[in-house]
Predict the structure of BTB domain-containing protein.
Amino acid sequence: MRSCISCQIKAKVEQRKRNEDLNAKLAFLTMPQPASFSDVVLFANDDDEHPVPVPAHKAVLANRSPVLRAMLDNEMKESLSGTIKIGDVSYDALRAFINYLYTAEYASTSNWPVQHLKDFCHKFLVSNLNLDNSLSTYTFARQHNFKSIIDAALTLITANMNKLASRDEYIELKERDPGLLLEIYEAYFSKWPKWAY
């Protein structure tokens, strides 16, 4: 009995320490940053005449989003100019999305529903899907069971299996999650006519 109480106290102390560590990290991540220290700005598509910038940091965006990482890592115009324009989204939705990338929390403002953020993220990932980010996007979508993103990524992957098989991302996925790679191959072979194998 005494050891059980001791174990419970120890577990509570450890949980409190974990919570304190997480709160310290969250406080750091949510610290307001002056716009002048940002190294990238994002613009929503809802105000073409007087766009309002949403300042951010490339390191944070690249760390939180494989799609944004692909845009910022490669020599795409977004990386070179430090400006990213996001289509089909309001300024409020873009601010909420960037806030979510920084804090992993949804800050509810007015009556803007969370589903809108989810829909925006789905559209963004699908519209920015390319060969460079297809495997990481597929992996992310499978982890979160995002059917529309899974389907879009799988279509692109299976159409380009020969090109992808020689890439580092493919080799990493093969080592990290062979089951996921097996799913990709099952989808790939399911497109072949029965007489072909």
Observations:
- The two ends are 64 Å apart (CA to CA).
- The first helix runs from residue 2 to 29.
- The chain is about 65% helix and 5% strand.
- Strands lie at 40-44, 54-56, 83-86.
